[in-house]
Specification:
By secondary structure, this protein is an alpha/beta fold. The chain is built from 10 helices and 10 strands. α6 packs across α8. This is Alpha/beta hydrolase. Keywords: Hydrolase. InterPro entries: AB_hydrolase_1 (IPR000073), AB_hydrolase_fold (IPR029058), Hydrolase_4 (IPR022742), MAG_DAG_Lipase (IPR051044). One of its GO terms (molecular function) is hydrolase activity. It holds the Pfam family Hydrolase_4.
Amino acid sequence: MPERFQPDLLRAHLRPLAEAAAEAPQLAAYRAFYGLEFAGVHGRMGVFPAAGFQIVAQAWWPAQPRGTLLLQHGYYDHVGLYRHLIAWALAQGFAVLACDLPGHGLSSGERASIGDFADYQAVLHCLFGEAAALGLPTPWHLCGQSTGGAILIDYLLRGTVRAEIGETLLLAPLVRPRAWAWSKLSYRLLQPFVSSIPRRFSENSNDPAFLAFLQRDPLQPLVLPTAWVGALARWVPAIEAAPPSARRPLIVQGDADMTVDWRHNLGVLGAKFAGTETLMLPGARHHLANESAALRQRYLDFFSARLA
């Protein structure tokens, strides 16, 4: 029987990511639990400080990488849930660097919370620093699911884009969530009285095995903090008022997505960027990183053709 994955034990033994340290106890059990075992690939897990948090990150290198994919996960997620995208990137010849956002996965911070979306930008900039320290090959392509996409949109619109950056891949990117007016009203009513409400797991994928796995994932947050909703409420008008960018991101969006207001969001992104290329996936739900195999293959082929 494989060793049981114990998050606290793994976290306690992690060293700085840029150090070539011996593997931490429990890392093999973590990889086995999340299916992050990739043959012929060198992998590393470690930590780095950012915005007052201890951020846990992972990197993988194929034998002769031709570039790098920097991956940003979605809300409630962590890197352990992204094996399909990581395996695809490695098969394409890219190194991969990804981190658990503050309050997510193995990183520190109040679970699923953030005081300000600016903290996410600070983490992203530190992730770039780790990519440079590790000598990861350029171009550095960016890929974000949902809130991870929002972080990348913010960077492209309001940051100074580094020369190393290549393409940007956005999966069901967040600008506004679905029923945003009601969510804001609920936040204003609840915020003075409660700090969080219980999380409701949604059927955000057509892959039943993924939905079942979430129920036994020890790194899943079980609350929705009002602080995160407040931070989002401040971020949305700021990003919708941001000046346009000359960048041209690649976007994948499912038309059965019940998490984000995708029609509004695609309109915003179309107006903010000099050009967008969007692949609409009929029947696809929100968690595109863990959609059914057939739907994943369609957008991975779309990405492969454009990163060739």
